[in-house]
Design brief:
DNA polymerase, domain 1; 2 domains; three-stranded antiparallel sheet; 298 residues; hpI Integrase, Chain A; mainly alpha; 14 helices; 4% strand
Length: 298
């Protein structure tokens, strides 16, 4: 095994043990870096300090020739930046060869956002006459109320919910914990689900999870996605609706209502506020439309 391959393995172990990144994130980094290692070939991998900016630039050009989009090339460069930052940290190299390489320009992809009316229709879609319907209604309400990722929703534990104070404690990316208010509607639906539905769904099983499916296990991400798709179709929504649609809508509606960006960043669990700033473009479009419609000189 070459020195570069050894450092590659050490870096992935560092991401798991020190950074606590999710399995999906680490798998993505691993694929990107493995592709870079394959591009380097055996000679260049013997001495990582010889990997310079020219090699990085040639690699990004190589990815373009392979048909990768600007967004994908940018992701690869981010993966490389993390790796070389780690090599500097462990004092294997002195200069980061990726530092002066600009990210490929990507067109801004605005997230799909539901209107407030569309959200109301979706949240009211589940029939609450059955235990499963009560659970589904509570899950949808909580997803929107707290702006959760679907993985955060399905892995919420009983001990993470404080109905008296009105908040949930969420374990997000990188094992970072945050506390998010949930509001009266979600509070009421969770309370009703816990008293009238959860015991019936559990049957003879026990579970630490708040929202449970078969045998006390949490619902899968795919299962919840199919559930949302069914409800969106049922209430006549034409837009493509995914669990992330409600997270996007949560952020956008808060900003449109006057919330500050920093508060939204904290509630979403974004480490970098630049990640949150994409929602300001959506909110800005809303403000422009309001100005155009109501300002006498628009």
């Amino acid at each position: 095994m070459s020195p570069a391959d050894t450092f590659f393995d050490q870096y992935l172990n560092y991401l798991v043990t020190e950074k606590g990144l999710s399995r999906n994130t680490i798998a993505s980094y691993s694929r990107d870096l493995a592709r870079f290692m394959a591009y380097l070939g055996p000679r260049k991998k013997d001495r990582v300090e010889t990997i310079d900016t020219t090699i990085i630039l040639k690699y990004i050009i190589h990815l373009r020739k392979q048909g990768l989009s600007a967004r994908s090339r940018a992701r690869h460069l981010v993966s490389l930046r993390g790796f070389f930052k780690y090599l500097i940290q462990i004092k294997e190299i002195d200069i980061d060869p990726t530092q002066t390489v600009d990210l490929p320009k990507t067109t801004l992809k605005l997230p799909d956002v539901l209107t407030v009316n569309e959200v109301h229709r979706l949240l009211n879609a589940p029939e609450i006459k059955s235990p499963a319907g009560l659970r589904n209604a509570a899950m949808l309400e909580t997803l929107y109320a707290a702006g959760l990722r679907v993985s955060e929703l399905i892995h919420l534990k009983l001990t993470s919910v404080n109905l008296e104070a009105g908040f949930v404690r969420v374990l997000g990316k990188g094992a970072k914990e945050r506390i998010v208010p949930i509001g009266n509607h979600a509070n009421e639906k969770i309370s009703l689900y816990m008293s009238a539905a959860r015991p019936l769904l559990l049957k003879s099983y026990t579970s630490e999870f708040l929202f449970i499916a078969r045998a006390g296990n949490p619902m899968t991400r795919q299962g919840f996605w199919k559930l949302m798709k069914r409800y969106a179709r049922h209430c006549g929504l034409i837009k493509k609706v995914t669990p992330h649609s409600l997270r996007h809508s949560f952020a956008t509606h808060l900003l449109e209502g006057g919330a500050d960006l920093r508060s939204v960043q904290v509630m979403l669990g974004h480490t970098d506020i630049s990640t949150t700033q994409i929602y300001t473009h959506v909110a800005r479009d809303h403000l422009i439309e309001i100005h155009r419609r109501y300002h006498p000189r628009a």
